[in-house]
């Protein structure tokens, strides 16, 4: 009888252990994670020449406040810590070190800008801290072999420009092209992509001008490019300088076929300050729904986005950069939810590198996020868009960013 009793107790213990959550699904936490909190770091230019992009950090902060009000992610609230770097790489380095070594965040998410992210890339990888969903389209973020802790999000500048080059070969093969680009990885990637898209016909480029972000104005560059006799203008500039370029072109009466960087399509921060009359027929590319466009007035995804803005960030209404920040935050939310109770830095990167056909509601129809262990470029599809009246209007089909084809 005694032996039977002991056997029964042992069997009961085995069954209890088998069904105990702590035994079957052990929690694993990296820095910045507890049962109730996940610390996420962010760096944005709240001041300086690229301050227009700070709306990304602001809308992401608002989005995580919304998530927290709904109970957080798997029961954990997001502690979103965002610092200003004024778009200055030395300051970016300082803020990254503070986030990693002092605040002890799990990861740095959506840090803004090519120069600053380039300055911290080696540091982040040496520390094995995710530099996740970088808010820059430089091609260097898609190098999982050399930098396994760095992943981009935005479609690459190089492949966007390749589409423009291919479009010109088809629609304006005898054009004379002038190019204005920022003198860093941001602008140089665009220039590289354009030349690749022209497929050996780079002689069509009759003038190139680069500018520094420290310059107060780029008016003199526009004057030089107009004097080249170009009838096509590739405008690879960030918002502040894009607005200057469009306005100056209007003053000079120079109206070439104008292509504008997809980073500078903001109506509020670029087109309106430059003057709607000066922006007519500009061509750019998008992968997000423009919340200001009438064609999305009845779209469920845009409606949900606007409801979020009404409750948490009303100043972002109608702003495509707000839609970008919102969609990036949704992607991080998806990654963290998939992590479950394994919130280690290693698992964060593993989940981020395993997104398949993930389609947040503000992406264009037919566009989806896909990643793998060998492909750290989530966005690889685009739609061309043209500015008409007071809004952007889509034309053509979804294009593959790598090939320029459907």
TrEMBL record:
Q: Does the keyword Signal apply?
A: yes
Gene3D superfamilies referenced in this protein's UniProt entry, alphabetically: 3.40.50.2300
List the InterPro entries hit by this protein, alphabetically: Leu-bd, Peripla_BP_I
The signal peptide annotation in the UniProt record is 1-25
Query: Which residues are in the Leucine-binding protein domain?
Result: 37-388
Q: Does the keyword Signal apply?
A: yes
User: Pfam families from the xrefs?
Assistant: Peripla_BP_6 (PF13458)
Q: Which domain of life is it from?
A: Bacteria
Which keywords does this chain's UniProt record carry? Signal
Identify its protein family.
Answer: Belongs to the leucine-binding protein family.
Name of the protein in question:
Amino acid/amide ABC transporter substrate-binding protein, HAAT family
What organism does this protein naturally occur in?
A: Bradyrhizobium erythrophlei
């Amino acid at each position: 009888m005694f032996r039977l009793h002991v056997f029964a107790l042992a069997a009961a213990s085995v069954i209890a252990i088998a069904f105990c959550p702590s035994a079957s699904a052990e929690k694993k936490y990296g820095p910045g994670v507890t049962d109730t909190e996940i610390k996420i770091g962010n760096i944005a230019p709240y001041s300086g020449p690229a301050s227009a992009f700070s709306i990304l950090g602001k809308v992401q902060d608002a989005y995580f406040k919304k998530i927290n009000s709904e109970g957080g992610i798997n029961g954990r609230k997001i502690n979103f810590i965002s610092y200003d770097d004024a778009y200055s790489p030395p300051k970016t380095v300082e803020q990254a070190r503070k986030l990693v070594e002092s605040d002890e965040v799990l990861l740095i998410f959506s840090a803004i800008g090519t120069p600053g992210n380039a300055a911290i890339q080696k540091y982040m990888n040496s520390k094995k801290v995710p530099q996740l969903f970088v808010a820059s389209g430089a091609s260097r973020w898609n190098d999982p072999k050399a930098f396994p802790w760095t992943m981009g999000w935005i479609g690459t500048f190089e492949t966007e420009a390749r589409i423009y080059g291919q479009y010109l070969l088809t629609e304006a093969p005898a054009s004379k092209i002038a190019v204005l680009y920022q003198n860093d990885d941001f602008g140089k990637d665009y220039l590289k992509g354009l030349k690749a898209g022209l497929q050996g016909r780079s002689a069509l480029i009759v003038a190139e001008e680069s500018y520094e972000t420290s310059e107060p104005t780029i008016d003199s560059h526009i004057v030089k490019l107009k004097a080249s006799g170009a009838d096509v203008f590739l405008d690879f500039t960030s918002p502040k300088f894009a607005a200057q370029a469009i306005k100056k072109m209007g003053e000079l009466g120079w109206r070439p076929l104008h292509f504008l960087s997809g980073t500078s399509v903001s109506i509020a921060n670029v087109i309106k300050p430059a003057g709607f009359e000066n922006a007519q027929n500009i061509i750019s590319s998008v992968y997000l729904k423009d919340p200001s466009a009438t064609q999305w007035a009845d779209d469920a995804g845009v409606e949900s986005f606007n409801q979020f803005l009404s409750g948490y960030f009303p100043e972002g209404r109608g702003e495509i950069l707000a839609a970008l920040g919102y969609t990036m935050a949704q992607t991080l939310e998806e990654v963290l939810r998939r992590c479950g109770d394994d919130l280690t830095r290693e698992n964060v990167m593993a989940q981020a590198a395993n997104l398949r056909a993930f389609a947040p509601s503000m992406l264009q129809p037919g566009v989806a996020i896909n990643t793998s262990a060998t492909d750290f470029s989530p966005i690889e599809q685009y739609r061309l868009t043209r500015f008409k009246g007071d809004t952007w209007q889509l034309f053509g089909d979804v294009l593959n960013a790598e090939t320029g084809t459907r």
